[in-house]
Design goal:
By secondary structure, the protein is of the alpha+beta class. The chain has 3 helices and 2 strands. The longest helix is centred in the middle third of the chain and has 27 residues.
């Protein structure tokens, strides 16, 4: 789902790893986008698609509202670290 959303908007998912309660994504995107816009779209669209596909199951766990993600997020730019080091860090998450 995340890859198809990214492709639709012209973003490139370089690396991602899913942990039990969060996800790490290394993403390349045009400077016309803000990270807030990207996070908001990823959360909104993945939530919508998850509810479309798994409504019966999710209703058992999220009975008050159709939510999937928490409100917060953390982001940072690569800065002085190489892309390869960030990729390795993400690959080692969830182990």
């Amino acid at each position: 789902e995340i890859e198809s959303i990214a492709n639709h908007y012209g973003w490139q998912i370089i690396e991602q790893e899913i942990d039990k309660d969060h996800i790490h994504i290394l993403i390349r995107y045009s400077p016309k986008w803000s990270i807030l816009e990207i996070v908001r779209l990823l959360k909104q669209l993945t939530t919508y698609r998850m509810w479309q596909k798994h409504e019966v199951y999710l209703c058992r766990h999220f009975w008050k509202e159709r939510t999937f993600w928490s409100d917060g997020y953390f982001s940072c730019s690569i800065g002085n670290v190489s892309k390869e080091i960030i990729q390795k860090y993400i690959q080692e998450q969830g182990r």
